[in-house]
Each structure stands twice: as structure tokens, then as C-alpha cells.
Amino acid sequence: MHPILFKIGPITIYTYGFFIFLGVLSGYLVSKKRAQEVGIKKEFFSNIFFWTLIIGFLGARIFYIFVNWQIFIKAPLTIALSRSGFVFYGGVVFGLLSIFVFAKKYKIEFLKITDIFALIIPLAHSLGRLGCFFYGCCYGLPTQSFLGIKFPIESPAGRLETTVIPTQLISAGFLFILFLFLFTFRNKINKIGSLSSYYLLIYSSFRFIIEFFRGDPRGFFLIFSTSQWISLILIFLAIIILGKKRSNYN
User: Fold this and answer.
1) Within the chain, where are the H helices?
2) Mean of the pLDDT values across residues 45-52?
3) Which of 30, 74, 116, 175 has the fewest CB atoms below 10 angstroms from its CB?
4) Looking at residue 250, what is its pLDDT?
């Protein structure tokens, strides 16, 4: 809708990038405080956060190229250098690998770290989805309902030349509510790994559903999109972890 936030001389500040930055900054501030609450050293966590962020973004782009390999072959530079073009679950997978390595290095329980990231990812992700909305990517299916929004012709969604479901705003709203829920009950959901499991269960269930309303190019395998298959795997994993936690508690 408004891809450029403002300009200062030759410097252009893009709205998408601004919201990504805002998401990273807010996520770091909240997670740093939480890390202190659970007894993780500040210098350890800062290092973990930095490298998990870098590796997560790298994974998100790699997954995007993998899912859209046919488009990438035709225009590799366009895809590689695009301001959009990230697969969230790719960031999650690579981010978890990064956390695993640092958990071993600093001798911190893996799920103790993932619980911190589970708390802040919905917040950062919700701001990122607002960036998607202003850029016009990650849009929904064409619709003539009252929900429909028409994007500028130069945006990815605008190329359809019709009103579409604003799945970006729906996702942003849901993710922010999820963050508020997890943040409010962070001390009550206090068994290590439970916060991560609730996040995976709730978000993956939502993602599985919202995928049916996405209209941007999706990678598909059989009847579901790539993200829906990953969602099903994560839902199953979350249920297993929660089941084990409850069994140990009993």
C-alpha cells in the first residue's frame, strides 16, 4: 500500500524494512529481559540472538528459493536480491539449528532457549506481516466481500488488478494476540518446553488454516501447500512434547 515510508535526500526508508527492523528490535528487548528472568547470562543470550537472527533470515530465503525453484531458475538475481521472498518456516528450521548449536556451546538446555524465542517470535512476526501488507506480498485470494482490499498496481498483490483478502493483516492481528497470550501466562506456563509447544501448536494450527486463503504463489505437494505440511508436522511435535511434559508432571 505504501512501500516507501519516507525519503531523506538520496536515502530511502522502505516500510517493509522498517517493520522488519522494528520487529527485530522489539523482539530483542523483550527476549533480553526474559533471558535475565530465567538466568541466562546477557552476553550468552546476545550472541545466541544475533546468530540465530542471521541464520534464520538465511534459512527463510533458502526455503523461498527451494519452494519457488522454477521462478528462481528463470530470474535468479531478481529472487536473490528481492526485498521480499522469505519463507517463515525456513527461518524457524534454521533458527532451531542455530539454537541447538549454541545450547551445546554454552551448556544451556535447548528448550529453555526456545521458550524465550517462542515468546518473542509472534511479536516480531506480527510486525513483519504489517511490512508485508505495506509492500503488498503474502496476499490473499481475490474476493468481492467487504474484506477485500485493492493494492497499487505496482505491488505484487496489485498485479491481480482486483480486491484480495488481506491475509497479512489477519495474520498480524492473530500473531499479536498470540504474543499477548504467551507473555501474560509466561510465568504460569513454566515447565521448560511448554511455552515452545503452545506456540508451535497454536501458530501452526492457525497457519494451516490461513494457507487456504492465501493467493500469492505457493509451493504445493499433493493437496496441501508446503507450509501446511510443515504445520502438520509441528502440530504433531508440539502435542508429543506437551504429552511428555504432562506425563512427567503427573
Assistant:
1) 15-37, 42-67, 69-74, 76-80, 88-106, 110-135, 167-184, 194-210, 226-249
2) 94
3) 74
4) 43
Contacts of 149 (CB under 8 A, 6+ apart): 1, 163, 164, 166
Find the largest Cα–Cα distance for the chain: 64
pTM here?
0.88
**Residue type at 167 in one-letter notation:** T
One-letter amino acid of 141: L
For cell 525519503, name the residue.
7
Buried b (16+ CB within 10 A) or exposed e, 2-36: ebeeeeeeeeeebbbebbbebbbebbbebbbebbe
Per-chain mean pLDDT for the chain:
89
- The tens digit of pLDDT for each residue in 181-221 reads 999 998 888 788 899 999 999 999 999 999 999 999 887 88
Using alpha carbons, list the distances in angstroms from residue 151 to 33, 56, 146: 39, 29, 15
Which pLDDT does position 249 carry in this prediction?
45
Domains of the chain: which residue ranges? 4-249
Task: Report pLDDT digits (tens) over 137-163.
Answer: 899 999 999 999 999 998 989 999 999
Task: Take residue 80 and report the three cell numbers written for it.
Answer: 536473490
Query: What whole-number distance in Å separates Cα of residue 38 and Cα of residue 189?
Result: 13
Check: CB of residue 91 under 8 Å from CB of residue 57.
yes
* Sign of the CA dihedral running 62, 140, 197, 235: negative
* Partners of 204 in the β-ladder: none
Q: How far apart are CA 233 and CA 245, in angstroms?
A: 19
The Cα–Cα gap between 83 and 135 comes to 9
**Per-residue cell: 198:** 503452545
